[in-house]
Specification:
- The chain is built from seven helices and nine strands; from the N terminus they run βαββαββαααββαββα.
- By secondary structure, it is α/β, with parallel strands linked by helices.
- Strands 1, 2, 3, 4 and 5 form a five-stranded mixed beta sheet that branches. Strands 6-8 form a two-stranded parallel ribbon. Strands 7-9 form a two-stranded parallel sheet.
- α1 crosses α2.
Length: 218
C-alpha cells in the first residue's frame, strides 16, 4: 500500500460528507494528533472527475491546517514546507457512486466494544479522558443486589441549616458521583442558608473517592 504526501491546499473537502464534528470531538481528535501524530493516512480520490476529493480524514486535515495557522502547531507524520502542509494519504481511483458508498462504509462499519474487557483493561477516568461520554461509561458502574447501603441507618434531612455540622465530598469523576448517590441514598435538599450570616458548624471537605474506597473495603 503506497502512501503519498498530498498538499492540503490541493485537497477538496467532500461536499456531501455526512459526518459532523462537535467541539468535544474536535478536542479529542486534536489531542490524539498531538500525542500520536498521523497514525493512519487519509484517503483521496484521484479519479479525473473527482480528483483530490477527500474520502477519509476530513477532520484530521482541517485540524492540522487550523492548528498550524492559529498556533504554529505541527503534528508528527505531517510535513511542513514553508506555508505548505502535506499529509500522508492513500490514493484511490473511484467513481462518484463508489466514493459515496465508501464514505458511508468507512463511517458506519465500526465494531462494538467488549464491555467486560474494557472493565478489565481500563479505569473509568482513563476512558473519559480518551473521549468516552458519560452515557457510554454507564456499564462501568457495577450494579449490586442486596446492597447493605440501600437503607441508610441515618436518615437524611430534607433541609440544611447553618447550625448543622456537615461533610462535603467532592468528585472529580462523574461516575463516582453516581455511585455515591446510589450507595448513600442521596437526594436533593432545600438550601436554607442565609449567605448574609456568618458560617457556623464544622465543615469538612474530603475526596469522595476515598469514602467509596472505604465503603467497598467494609
Amino acid at each position: 500500500m503506497d502512501i503519498v504526501y498530498k498538499p492540503i491546499s490541493q485537497l477538496i473537502d467532500c461536499e456531501y460528507n455526512p459526518k459532523k464534528l462537535s467541539p468535544e470531538q474536535y478536542e479529542q481528535i486534536k489531542s490524539s494528533l498531538l500525542k500520536f501524530g498521523w497514525t493512519l493516512p487519509g484517503i483521496v480520490n484521484v479519479n479525473p472527475d473527482r480528483e483530490n476529493v477527500i474520502i477519509d480524514a476530513h477532520q484530521r486535515k482541517n485540524i492540522t491546517k487550523a492548528e498550524y495557522e492559529k498556533h504554529g502547531t505541527k503534528f508528527e507524520e505531517a510535513k511542513y514546507q514553508g506555508d505548505e502542509i502535506l499529509i500522508p494519504c492513500i490514493e484511490r481511483n473511484l467513481t462518484l457512486d463508489q466514493e459515496r458508498e465508501l464514505i458511508i462504509r468507512l463511517k458506519k462499519n465500526t465494531s462494538s466494544w467488549d464491555e467486560e474487557l474494557l472493565k478489565e483493561a481500563y479505569q473509568v477516568d482513563e476512558l473519559a479522558e480518551m473521549g468516552f461520554a458519560d452515557k457510554e461509561l454507564d456499564f462501568m458502574v457495577e450494579e449490586t443486589e442486596n446492597d447493605e447501603f440501600d437503607d441508610p441507618e441515618i436518615e437524611f434531612t430534607d433541609q440544611m441549616l447553618l447550625e448543622h455540622n456537615y461533610v462535603v465530598l467532592y468528585f472529580d469523576n462523574p461516575m463516582d458521583w453516581e455511585v455515591a448517590k446510589e450507595k448513600l441514598g442521596l437526594e436533593k435538599v432545600k438550601e436554607l442558608i442565609d449567605v448574609k450570616e456568618p458560617t457556623k458548624g464544622i465543615g469538612r471537605v474530603m475526596e469522595g473517592k476515598q469514602i467509596l474506597d472505604r465503603l467497598s473495603d467494609e
